[in-house]
Amino acid sequence: MTLLVDAADDLALLPDLAAAGVDGFQVRAKAVTDAELLCLARLVIGAVAPLGASVTVCDRVDVALASGADGVHVGADDLPVAEVRALADAVRPGLLVGATCRDRAGVVRAAAAGASYAGIGPVRASDSKAGLPEPLGVAAVAAAAGVLPLVAVGGLDAATARATRAAGAQGVAVIGAVWRDPDPVGAAEVLVAAVG
C-alpha cells in the first residue's frame, strides 16, 4: 500500500506508518518550493527507508533523482513517460517510473513508453485533488489489468481497496483514508490488512 505525503501531514507518524505495513510512500506537495520539496523527499526517505518502505516523488523526476528516491510518478500534464524514462536512465537506470492512466489503452501506451507501473483512477470520487475526472469504478481496474502492475487510486476505503486488489490491482494508493482518520496509524493497519 502506498500513502501520499504532503508537507502539511503529521510527518512524525511516518516511521509508525511504515511499521504498520505501509510499504510505499509518495511525496506529493504542490504548495512548496523546489528546495522544500527536496527536503521533504529526503525527510520521508530517512523516516521510512530504514523500515523497508520505498519512496516515490510525484511529478518531479529531478527531485526524485536528487533526493535518492526509488521512483517518480507522472501524470498526464507532466513530462511524458518516455522523456522521464530517458532522463532517469541517463542518471540512475532502474528508477521506478509510474504513470497515471484511465484505461487499458493508456496502460498499454505507458508500458510502451517505459513505465514501471500504472496508477489507475480515480476509482471512486475523491476530494483529495481538485479537477479529477469522473470515477472509473472497480470494473476499470479489471479491464486494465495484465499489462503493467496497477496501483488503484481515488476515494478508496478498505472495502474498495480489497475489491480493486481482487480485480487485478497489485497495490493501492491513498491519502484521505489515512490522513483524515483520527487514528492514521490504525487506519493504515486496516487498509494494509484489507489489501494484504
Automatic annotation (TrEMBL):
<feature type="binding site">
    <location>
        <begin position="126"/>
        <end position="128"/>
    </location>
    <ligand>
        <name>2-[(2R,5Z)-2-carboxy-4-methylthiazol-5(2H)-ylidene]ethyl phosphate</name>
    </ligand>
</feature>
<feature type="binding site">
    <location>
        <position position="100"/>
    </location>
    <ligand>
        <name>4-amino-2-methyl-5-(diphosphooxymethyl)pyrimidine</name>
    </ligand>
</feature>
<feature type="binding site">
    <location>
        <begin position="26"/>
        <end position="30"/>
    </location>
    <ligand>
        <name>4-amino-2-methyl-5-(diphosphooxymethyl)pyrimidine</name>
    </ligand>
</feature>
<dbReference type="InterPro" id="IPR022998">
    <property type="entry name" value="ThiamineP_synth_TenI"/>
</dbReference>
<dbReference type="GO" id="GO:0009229">
    <property type="term" value="P:thiamine diphosphate biosynthetic process"/>
</dbReference>
<feature type="binding site">
    <location>
        <position position="78"/>
    </location>
    <ligand>
        <name>Mg(2+)</name>
    </ligand>
</feature>
<dbReference type="GO" id="GO:0009228">
    <property type="term" value="P:thiamine biosynthetic process"/>
</dbReference>
<feature type="binding site">
    <location>
        <position position="59"/>
    </location>
    <ligand>
        <name>Mg(2+)</name>
    </ligand>
</feature>
<dbReference type="InterPro" id="IPR013785">
    <property type="entry name" value="Aldolase_TIM"/>
</dbReference>
<feature type="binding site">
    <location>
        <position position="129"/>
    </location>
    <ligand>
        <name>4-amino-2-methyl-5-(diphosphooxymethyl)pyrimidine</name>
    </ligand>
</feature>
<protein>
    <recommendedName>
        <fullName>Thiamine-phosphate synthase</fullName>
        <ecNumber>2.5.1.3</ecNumber>
    </recommendedName>
</protein>
<keyword id="KW-0460">Magnesium</keyword>
<feature type="binding site">
    <location>
        <position position="155"/>
    </location>
    <ligand>
        <name>2-[(2R,5Z)-2-carboxy-4-methylthiazol-5(2H)-ylidene]ethyl phosphate</name>
    </ligand>
</feature>
<dbReference type="Pfam" id="PF02581">
    <property type="entry name" value="TMP-TENI"/>
</dbReference>
<keyword id="KW-0479">Metal-binding</keyword>
<comment type="similarity">
    <text>Belongs to the thiamine-phosphate synthase family.</text>
</comment>
<keyword id="KW-0784">Thiamine biosynthesis</keyword>
<dbReference type="GO" id="GO:0005737">
    <property type="term" value="C:cytoplasm"/>
</dbReference>
<dbReference type="InterPro" id="IPR036206">
    <property type="entry name" value="ThiamineP_synth_sf"/>
</dbReference>
<keyword id="KW-0808">Transferase</keyword>
<feature type="domain" description="Thiamine phosphate synthase/TenI">
    <location>
        <begin position="8"/>
        <end position="178"/>
    </location>
</feature>
<dbReference type="GO" id="GO:0000287">
    <property type="term" value="F:magnesium ion binding"/>
</dbReference>
<comment type="function">
    <text>Condenses 4-methyl-5-(beta-hydroxyethyl)thiazole monophosphate (THZ-P) and 2-methyl-4-amino-5-hydroxymethyl pyrimidine pyrophosphate (HMP-PP) to form thiamine monophosphate (TMP).</text>
</comment>
<dbReference type="InterPro" id="IPR034291">
    <property type="entry name" value="TMP_synthase"/>
</dbReference>
<dbReference type="GO" id="GO:0004789">
    <property type="term" value="F:thiamine-phosphate diphosphorylase activity"/>
</dbReference>
<comment type="pathway">
    <text>Cofactor biosynthesis; thiamine diphosphate biosynthesis; thiamine phosphate from 4-amino-2-methyl-5-diphosphomethylpyrimidine and 4-methyl-5-(2-phosphoethyl)-thiazole: step 1/1.</text>
</comment>
